[in-house]
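Take just one protein record:
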Amino acid sequence: MRALTQIILHCSATEEGKECSVDTIRDWHMSRGWDDIGYHYVIYADGTINRGRDVDVIGAHTKGQNKSSVGICYIGGLIGGKPSDTMTSHQELAFMELVFSLRSVFGWLPVNGHNKYSKKACPSFDVQEKYQLINQK
């Protein structure tokens, strides 16, 4: 197993309510020359958690952080082309369940947003502000 130190949250940067699948994201990433989808998990608007890369495989989601992180992407992140927190209540519950599940296997893993490591807006909100309760030990 990889030594993991954090979970990094992303968004698909798609319009609120627009469907997007793991296979679509996989195609986007592979068209860039990547081996597979960069994320380990993708959460659909209805809260369904879909597997991307195996968690034992290094992701391709956050430059400089992939070796020791799990990448989770929720579908959405834009309203009218502008970054917006579009997580549905189903996505939020699924995300929290996934975080706690990963922590039960890998130990304490803080949650950070992609925007902590990049000038991108992704995941379209401040993760530390929104998820401060789940980031407290």
